[in-house]
Write a structure and sequence with these properties.
three-stranded antiparallel beta sheet; single chain
Length: about 250
Amino acid sequence: MSAADRLRPAADRLARGAGRLGPALARRATAWARRGHRDDLTGLAAHLGTLLRAALIALGLYLVARAVRATPSLMWVVAGVALLAAWRAGRPAPAKDDKKEAAEKTDEPPAEMPEEVAEEVPAEAAEEAPAEAPLPTREELALALRAVADPNAHTAALAAHMQLPADRVRAALKAARIPAGGQVRMGGVTSTGIKASNFPPLPPAESGDPTPVVVAGQDSNSSSSDAPRVVRGEGTVTIYDPAETHRHHKVA
């Protein structure tokens, strides 16, 4: 191996370090100057610290240049410091394989997790994940729309009444096929909402229609004429059974 081959690794390290040294010094100088900014002040006063530090950096470079120019022998000192800094900055980064081997040598192997604990961990994680609440149903929307109608209902008012985000209310309206759009007037204000003509019907339990009561074991289609007839007299109560027209029961 020739002398040039033996010196090539050192020359490569110095060249690599010299390429890294300039940007690194510039970044450090810029960061140091920026730390002089005052966040508690405004205007030019806030930047005075940054300007002062930048002036100090420029002054330092100027003084070094003047000193070297006045005493050329100082160039050897500057060159030695620069070579040392380039040598340190040109240190080769460890390869990924070397990092992995070093980690394997220094780190202890992880303890195996018991099978019971390993089975419980995914289940607990699944339980901790919050499930998204279902969208309001068509019946719930119908009740809420009539609760806020004036005479129409704005989407924002509907969302505030149902205590839900507006996007979930819009998604629920779309899923329930309830038309919603702009230019809807509510309380004298025009905005996006649902017209009263597009309100869905109320569910049967809330509509107020009388629901026929059917006795257990009795057909719901039977007419009222099939019910027993009660006739009250003086001191007596007579019950006529429609199933037996020739019989009646008298109660004293």
